[in-house]
Amino acid sequence: MKLERRAAMATLLADRGDDLLVVPGLGSTAWDAAAAGDDDRNFYLWGAMGGAAMIGLGLALAQPGRRVAVITGDGEMLMGLGSLATIGIQKPRNLAIIVFDNGVYGETGMQPSHTQSGVDLLSVAGACGIATCLDVRDEPALIDLAGRLKRLNEMLFARVLIAADEPPRVLPLRDGVALKKRFRAAIGLNP
Amino acid sequence: MSAGPGNWPDQLFDTLKRGGIRQVGYVPDAGHSRLIERCRADGEIRDVVLTTEEEGVALAAGAWLGGERTALLMQSSGVGNCINMLSLSRACRFPLLMFITMRGEWEEFNPWQVPMGSIVEPVLKLCEADIYRVRTPDEVASTAERALQQAFGDERIAAVILSQQLIGKKVWTK
User: Fold this and answer.
1) Interface contact B60-A57, CB threshold 8 A
2) pLDDT in tens, B147-167
3) Backbone angles phi, psi at A157, to 5 degrees
4) Nearest-CB residue to A57 (from B22, B57, B62)
5) Domain ranges, ordered by start, for chain A
6) Nearest residue of B to residue A46, measured between CA atoms
7) Torsion of CA B58, B59, B60, B64, to 10 degrees
């Protein structure tokens, strides 16, 4: 029984703390994060496919005192596969890259993604030098991941196997300038 | 620091330091080699080697969300790799400071550099970038300074284009 995406996101972001900054990748993970409760410290992506992990890297390097979680889908991660090589040699201690892997491109009609045919993102991340790579397939593993996220002190990559379902969309703010300004203000920067 | 004509990469580095640049993303490039070397040796600048230039656009956006300034170094061919990711800079008005070394425009031996090199400026214009062309060594530092202020002061894409004439001819046979 695969994990349900909305419940998985809610578990990861429950009692998130003021210092957790979240970059949800475009598409379903953005709706999941919005459904878990909107927060000024979420920078939802509505485009920039393939860029989520690198946004997380720039943010984690700029904010070493805060935790950064990129939570994105398998299709989005596949488009930025090279960024795992880039991140693998930087390894900021405060960065977690979490991929919700359902093996399909859910936003475009459930076409199969590469992961469904054997491409293993966990092995890719490991081969790129990320030491902690977690295979999250059930509730106990998810709870373990949520705990690690709370006390993040080494870079981690996690693949969360989720069911290929399509819960109703929960759409966050989509004005990019407004998202940027409220995010910066929330961490004490001049918007 | 001497101010000889061959020293423009050092002057550019000094400008980046004065401008508070803390992250530098780059795909290795011969024209930027001295600047990359200076960035790698600097204790305050985080140098981030990229697999493709579009990663740098996203890196700069994330850095700005966290309050840091980034410079992105690339060759003209890399501009083409950035196009869709520049939507991020444009949709959210993220500052983006790019330094682009030109190929395919002056004494170019490799004809495969010409197709992308010849459309760098129009493509960047379509992406609403402010373009600063540099042809001579003495213009580098002052132009970089203006571009830096434009990028971070007005949250714009500012692209400094370093002419191939400035960088010199690539040696193909040794």
Assistant:
1) no
2) 999 999 999 999 999 999 998
3) -125, 135
4) B62
5) 5-186
6) B88
7) 100
**Residue that the structure tokens 């953005």 belong to:** A30
- Structure tokens that stand for A171 in this block: 């759409």
Instruction: Please write the tens of the pLDDT for every residue from B76-130.
Output: 999 999 999 999 999 999 999 999 999 999 888 899 999 999 999 999 999 999 9
In order of their start, the domains of chain B are 5-167 (3.40.50.970)
Which of B50, B60, B65 is closest, CB to CB, to A86?
A: B50
Superfamily holding A5-186 = Thiamin diphosphate (ThDP)-binding fold, Pyr/PP domains (3.40.50.970)
* Chain A, nearest residue to B85 by Cα: A48
Mutate to test the interface with B, among A19, A20, A41, A59 (most CBs of B within 10 A): A59
In this structure, what token pair is assigned to residue A72? Answer: 């994105």
Q: DSSP label at B106?
A: S
Residue A6 near residue A169 (C-beta atoms within 8 A): no
